[in-house]
Structure formats: C-alpha cells, structure tokens
Amino acid sequence: MGASEVFKDCTFAFVLSRDLPKKLAEDHKPSIEDNGGQVVPFDKDFDLSDVTHIISATVDFPQFSEARLQLKPVVTTTWITASLSRNKEVHPGPYTPDPNMIFANVTITCEGLPSGDKDAIIGAVLAMGGLETSNLTKMTTHICALNVDGDKARSAEEKGLKCKIVLPHWFGDCMKLGKRIDERPYVLPNPEYFTTDPEAPIPLPSTDILNGAASPVPGPLPMPTDSPIRKLTVFANKSVMLSADLQLGSRLQKVLKGLIVSGGGSVTESVHDADFFVCHWREGRDYVFASRYGVDVGNLSWLYHMIANNSYISPLRMLLHYPLPKGGIPGFEDFRITLSNYGGEARTYLENLVKAAGAEFTKSMKQDNTHLITARKASEKCDAAMEWNIEMVNHLWIEESYARCAVQKLTDPRYTTFPARTNLGEVIGQTKFDNAILKQNYFPKDPTPSPDDPKPSRKRKVMREKDRNASSSKRVESDIETEDQDEETVPKPKFKKPAAVSRRSSVAQVSTPASRRVSAGKENDTPSSTGSRSAKDKANTRIHAAAPDIALYEMEKKRKGPVWGGERAAKKMEKEKSMERSSSPAVKHHDEAEDFSEEESRTPGPKRQKTGLKPVQIRLLITGYQGWLGNVAKEEIDKKKLRDMGVLVTSDPSKCTHVAAPSMVRTQKFLCALASGPTIVDSNFIDTCVQKGKIPDVEEFLLKDKGAEKKFGLKLKDAVSRAKANKRNLLRRVPVYCTADIKNGPETYRSIVQANGGTFGIFTGRPFVKKISPEEDDGPAEPVYLITGQTPKEKQLWGKFAEMAVEGNMIPRVVDSEWLLDVAMSQTHKWNNGYLADKK
C-alpha cells in the first residue's frame, strides 16, 4: 500500500476541546488528506453516517454513545501518527480516550514471570485497552519483570528505549482498583514499593480534574478562559432552561441569560424545547421529563464549568455536576464520616460528596465515627481507626455508592486496597454516573401514563438516540431499550366495556403476523383478557420497532478480538443484567462469578437462560490441596469440569457448603470455613470428581485424621456438629484484640474472630473501653482478650492492656495465638492458664 492510500475511503471528524484545540486539529489535517483521507470541517456538527473515524481527546461529546453502537472508532491524535509510521491503520484499542480502558497506550512485554501470572497480566492489559508483544520493540512501553537481570531489560537499557521496567505488582494494584495509578513507585531497579517505608510521607497529587467540580454550589460566576473578547460558543444553537429550584436572583439570572444568548444560544421556559436543563434537585415534573427524553440535566456548578472552559462536558461525567438527591442516598443517614490524607480540592470534593450522600461529615475523628475515608493507610487517624474498629476505606467507596445510588458493600476489595507508596488522590474524580441506574431510581418508565402527558417532540427523540450521557459498555443495554420509551408516551386505551368492536379496532392498529389464531366464540372477552391481548400486541410492535437495534447488537456480540466490545462485552452485559434481576444494587457486585452461576441454576421455568450448567449442588472451599500447585492451566480446566457437574469452587468461607483438605489444618481458610459447619472431605474428593466426571458419594470421602484429632484433643465430627449449632456465633460479644506486630499479621486473626461472630480490634496502647466503676456495671466482669507475640515491643503493651481492662470492669487475658486457634478448631470455649502469654 502506498503512503497516499493509508487513509483511503476514510472520513475523519475532529471533536475540538481544551485538550484538542483547533490548532492541533489543523496540524493533522494535511497528513490525513495527503494520505487519501477526508476531514469534516472543524466548525460543523458532523453526522455519524458521514464519517468513519472520530478523533477526540475525550468521550464527552454528544455522538459518543451512538458511535460505539455503530462501531465507529473514537481515537486520539496519536492513532494518526502511529498509522502513518506503520503505513497502515493500526488497531484503535490502545488509542481510545475512554477512561474505562485503563491500560490504553500501554504495550507490554513480560520477562521472568511464572506462566500463570504472565497470562493473567497480559489478559488484563488486552481487556483494558492495551497491547502485548512477545519481543521487545520500539513500541513497547512497559517491561513487566521482577528484576533488571533479564535479556529484555538489558537490551532496553543498551538501546536507550524509553520503556519502563515495572513490577507485576503495578498491574495487580491497577486491576484491584479498576483505576490506573502512577507506576513510578513500581519502576525497577530500585522501586519505592520495596525500598521505602510505606508510611513515609508522599506529596499530595494534583487534582486539576476537580476544578469547578468540587461543589454542587458554585462560587462566583466565572468568565470564559480562552479569550476575554471571544464570546461563548458552547451554547451555540442550544436552548437552556433554568429551573426555579435554583433560586437565582434577578441580577444573576440576567447575567446568565446574557452569556447564553450572546454565545448563540437561547433561554426557554419550557423543558419540552430545552437542550440543557439546569436544576438543583433530582425531583419534579420537569426533571423527570428532561431525564427521560435525552435532555442534558445538570446543576449550576455544571453550567458554570462549561462557561469557564467554553467546552461541553456531560453532566454525568463529574458526580457533583448532577442534581442532588433530596434526602441523600438511603443508608447514609446513620453514618459519621471523616477524611485523612486528602488535601486541597480533593478534600473539599469529598466533604461535599459525603454531605450530598446524606451522611454527617466530621473534621476530627472520635470513637463514634463509622467510617474513615483515606487515600493511604498511614496516619494517626488510620491507626485510631484500626484500634477502634472503625471501617477504613478509600474514596472509591463513597464515589461509587453515590454514583450507584446505594451503599456499596465494604467487602469489595476495591474499597480496601491501599497500594504502598501511592496516594489514591491521584485517581479521584474518575467515577461517573450510569444513566441506567439513575433511571431506575429517579425517573423509571411510568407504567400508567396519563393521556394529558406531554408528547416529546421529534427533536427530543433524535436526541435520545444520540444520548450524550453514555461512556461505558452498559450503554449498549439502555440504548437498545429506547424504543420501549417511545411506547410509554402513547396513552393506553381505556376499556369501558368488553365490546368486540373495540377489540378488533385495537388489533387493527398494530402490525401482527397474519397467521395469528383467534378462537371462535370469543367476541365478548372479559376486560382482563382484552388487556392481555393488547399487551401482547404492544410487545409485538416494540419488537418490530427495535429490530434494527437488535440486529446491530447481535452483530456486535459475534465480533471477536482483543479490544473491549464484541462477544466479551455482550457476555459481560448479559451477566450484569442477570445479576440485576437477582440482587439489589448494593450487593450485585459482590462475588460476581459465584452469584451469576447460582442465578443460572435457580432461575425457574422455561425463561431460564440455557447455559448448559447444572445447578450448584456443592460450594467447595479448597485448602492445602497440592494438585494445582504451579499449574494454573490445570486448575482452570479442573474448576470448569467441577462446575459442569454442579461443584462450584469458592474462596468465601462463609458461603461454602463443603471443605476439601488433605488433613485437619489450622489454616485461616479452614478455621473460617469450619465456623459454618460445612461437610469436610479429603482432597482426594477433587481428583475423583475430575477423573469420573461426576460427584461421588460424599460420605466415602469424609476427612479422617486420627493423628490430628489426638494432637488437638478433639473429634472433627463433634467440632462440625458444634459449629452448626453455634451458627457462626461462638465468640459473640467476646472482644478480642491483637498487637499490630503479631506474627502472620492482624488480618489473619481478624478473619477468624469475625467468622465466629466476635468483635476484633488492634491494640496499640490507646483506650479501648470507657472507665467505669463496678457499681456502674450491671453485670459480672467479662473477659477481654489480647493476642500477642513475645517481642519486646508487644510485651510493653501487656501492662497497659490489663490496666485499661480493669478500669472498664473487664477481666484482662493476654494470650498466645494458640488460644484462638484451639477455640476455632474445637468450636467450643476453652480456657486454662496455659494460654496466658506470660506463662510462655
């Protein structure tokens, strides 16, 4: 292919913005035209049917969601340069401006990693917008390795390549968070991740992304930043409605209207004619109408932001640019939340977000606080939170709870991940709203619309098809459903009497198959049967109307490839839809793979999706099994075989029904699972299932370990029976603390205590109970436990712990970890003075 034909038959449209100014677009235009392409005029609103590629630095433009549906590439200007350098159109995946593709612009090669880790990292990079090369090339941006001793690392240094050699931990932390964090702490040969104290100070990151988006109530009215003499263009040919709930003064209202009109826009008093609707609360007839029919709905802060930057931004892009929920988010009213390790605009933004969600924000932290939101796990507040058993999360929890309109579960590891040497303030403000969730909670389709309801104009229907608010793969689902919204605007017929003429008239108005059977003698159907028939007719009409979108969707499902979309995106969307039917927004993201499998197995009736999977009969937790050690491929194959026969391998001890282990082991997983009273089988059970392809008689594989039973002084069968009776409440109301320097780490003991219903905290010497006199306590003194090691630092805490326990009218017991392990294994309260740490 000649150089002049690289972009043959391609028509490009540039989306101008602050990051892609007109000057930069003009610089690229000759390169495109000299190589056979065409460019739509910069100042013209382009039609998607006329272009093949869209060049943009952002996804905040009206045609983005429709472009995704039509599979039109949306790429940055670097895609043009890369295509010209290779003399062919390169894959658009790594050049997408979509922030959900966190590894866009990353080309990775791996060296010296175990095959399982390598495959997992490469798969994640490909799924999230990156590329992989087996050999080191000039296009390689990252070498994933454990050291710099490999051939690729040495070759990159010798050739002076600009690629970075990073630890695999960087990819792992990015995937845990779902965000791309700075790789500098992970760069070899001397990564801060290993060489620097995790609690050493870190400079606060820049939070420019929050400029103009840190508060739902803006400050003084800004002026456009590009030129003092150039008028606004962001409102050109747009109609803006200012809601009465903004409570604007007459002077400010006059200034805003003047700016909009002088910039080529107009101000309307009717939401039916508006392109932008500005209000403060998520309520009212105008808000619902605008939201249902594709009008951009934002608050005054959003309007000011567009004025200041003279560029369009979706009101769903920044959380505090969208109207506030009156009364907050359900569940937040009982929370008292404070912050740590955030500063500047980030701190202001999170304070306002906490208040908007309906929680109480406190500047200082006390024992009655419920949550600490922190950017890293290093501060006095963090130490106190661990000691007082206050929930400690990063800002993704409050952002996603607000965006999903429901309190998110704290068990999601994304909210409790704190990478070493990283301040998570660097990824703040990247969470956006999903229009489908807002629709479900604030403007669902009206099942019984009134005939007096206003009809959307043709203009509104076009805008709805080109919804500006979508930027994620879930938009495919909501866009397919837009035809249902059209039907909702048609008033349902009122059946005054079951006349035959009315029924025939209703049938005649819809396009139904001619072969549809009508039984004789049914002219006088009851109103209920008439309504049922009308509903079926409407369903047929909707299917016919949605046929083009469904065909496009089915075509997209079949597309395969390394970029996000196609078959993989369709399957993920269908998985999420199944989960939405089976759970609330607050829990649908917890343990997704397991819950989806279970949903398939329990969906009743002929409507159940035919997946070929058997219902889950056994939820199996595996510990101590050696058969998959170092062989990830065999592990995945065996797990699939097990699932096909109805055995779901789970890692959650609270959900398992069976445990497979080679012997009675006092591992964290075994002890946590034992608290549920599961059936415990020998590890040979796994091998037999895989070899025979069916579940054998479980009774033949019950774990028998007489040596361990004698060693621990118990019968496993009796321990399981007691666990079933205890119902995970063995340590209910038993306060258990441990030292921060305990061997194996405090989290190991936390999980065991909490699995058995106890309360857990880390003792660092601060008060943990209120000082009371025995007369004030209305019951006998109860024991309180401190699990400790024998280091000098830990021993210094023993006296203080005992003193504080006595002041709280409690019995102090400073014990070795053997006490907890014996209690959890036997599933009964055990005590003798031999467990005391000072006896060791």
UniProtKB/TrEMBL annotation:
<feature type="domain" description="BRCT">
    <location>
        <begin position="98"/>
        <end position="188"/>
    </location>
</feature>
<dbReference type="GO" id="GO:0005634">
    <property type="term" value="C:nucleus"/>
</dbReference>
<feature type="domain" description="BRCT">
    <location>
        <begin position="230"/>
        <end position="320"/>
    </location>
</feature>
<dbReference type="GO" id="GO:1990683">
    <property type="term" value="P:DNA double-strand break attachment to nuclear envelope"/>
</dbReference>
<dbReference type="Pfam" id="PF12738">
    <property type="entry name" value="PTCB-BRCT"/>
</dbReference>
<dbReference type="InterPro" id="IPR036420">
    <property type="entry name" value="BRCT_dom_sf"/>
</dbReference>
<feature type="compositionally biased region" description="Basic and acidic residues">
    <location>
        <begin position="568"/>
        <end position="580"/>
    </location>
</feature>
<feature type="domain" description="BRCT">
    <location>
        <begin position="332"/>
        <end position="404"/>
    </location>
</feature>
<dbReference type="InterPro" id="IPR001357">
    <property type="entry name" value="BRCT_dom"/>
</dbReference>
<dbReference type="InterPro" id="IPR053036">
    <property type="entry name" value="CellCycle_DNARepair_Reg"/>
</dbReference>
<dbReference type="GO" id="GO:0035361">
    <property type="term" value="C:Cul8-RING ubiquitin ligase complex"/>
</dbReference>
<feature type="domain" description="BRCT">
    <location>
        <begin position="2"/>
        <end position="97"/>
    </location>
</feature>
<dbReference type="Pfam" id="PF16770">
    <property type="entry name" value="RTT107_BRCT_5"/>
</dbReference>
<feature type="compositionally biased region" description="Low complexity">
    <location>
        <begin position="498"/>
        <end position="511"/>
    </location>
</feature>
<protein>
    <submittedName>
        <fullName>Related to RTT107-Establishes Silent Chromatin</fullName>
    </submittedName>
</protein>
<feature type="region of interest" description="Disordered">
    <location>
        <begin position="441"/>
        <end position="540"/>
    </location>
</feature>
<feature type="region of interest" description="Disordered">
    <location>
        <begin position="559"/>
        <end position="612"/>
    </location>
</feature>
<dbReference type="GO" id="GO:0006302">
    <property type="term" value="P:double-strand break repair"/>
</dbReference>
<feature type="compositionally biased region" description="Basic and acidic residues">
    <location>
        <begin position="464"/>
        <end position="478"/>
    </location>
</feature>
<feature type="compositionally biased region" description="Acidic residues">
    <location>
        <begin position="479"/>
        <end position="488"/>
    </location>
</feature>
<feature type="domain" description="BRCT">
    <location>
        <begin position="618"/>
        <end position="703"/>
    </location>
</feature>
